[in-house]
Amino acid sequence: MKKIICFGLVLLALLGCLTACNFTQNMSGAIAGEAEATPKVEEMMAALADDNTSDAKALLHPQVAETSDNAIAQMSAYLAGRKASAIELISININSSTGTAGKTRQERVGYQVTLTDGAVIFLNAVYLSNNQGTGFASFQVVLGVV
Q1: Is residue 1 pLDDT above 50, yes or no?
Q2: Taking CA 96 as the corner, what is the angle to CA 93 and CA 99, rounded to the nearest 5 degrees?
Q3: Which of 25, 33, 101, 121 has the highest CB neighbour count under 10 A?
Q4: Beta 84-99 vs 133-142: how paired, if at all?
Q5: How far apart are CA 90 and CA 30, in angstroms?
Q6: Crossing angle between the packed helical segments 37-49 and 69-79, to the nearest 10 degrees
């Protein structure tokens, strides 16, 4: 009986050692003050309204920065100089993990943006921080029903 208990404890300890490499923490509905993306969204909206593509590309994650020229041009053309007069966070989901590839923090955020002409648009963005860099992995202006 003692051998079975000892074997079970050793097996449980071995299992714990093999699965302890990845710690994940999810927070949904966190307070707005925790979002790293909020000041970056304001910078991105200002860069897009001013048609400043170099500043907009600098805010993107290195994984997507090279393939984003057309998308940045489309969003700048839509804004056509209209700046954001109000940006309100409407949803947030933060996922932080630590594993063999390093630390990763991903924020999925949604904003309601009021432009200077009174038009209301919505933004969906993914702000990613990992060992490759920090920036927007996704930044979408959403038109239509949300």
Answers
A1: yes
A2: 150
A3: 121
A4: unpaired
A5: 11
A6: 70
Paired tokens of 12: 């449980």
**Mean per-residue pLDDT for 25-34?**
47
d(CA 1, CA 112): 64
List 111's β-bridge partners, or say none.
Answer: 89, 123
Q: Which residue has the higher pLDDT, 34 or 119?
A: 119
Nearest to 59 by CA among 41, 71, 78, 33: 41
Cβ(116)–Cβ(83) below 8 Å: yes
Cβ neighbors of 88 (< 8 A, separation 6 or more) are: 111, 112, 113
Residues 42, 125: contact at Cβ < 8 Å? no
Which DSSP helix (H) or strand (E) runs through 112? Answer: strand 102-115
The burial class, CB within 10 Å (0-12 / 13-18 / 19+), for 61 is buried
pTM of the model: 0.72
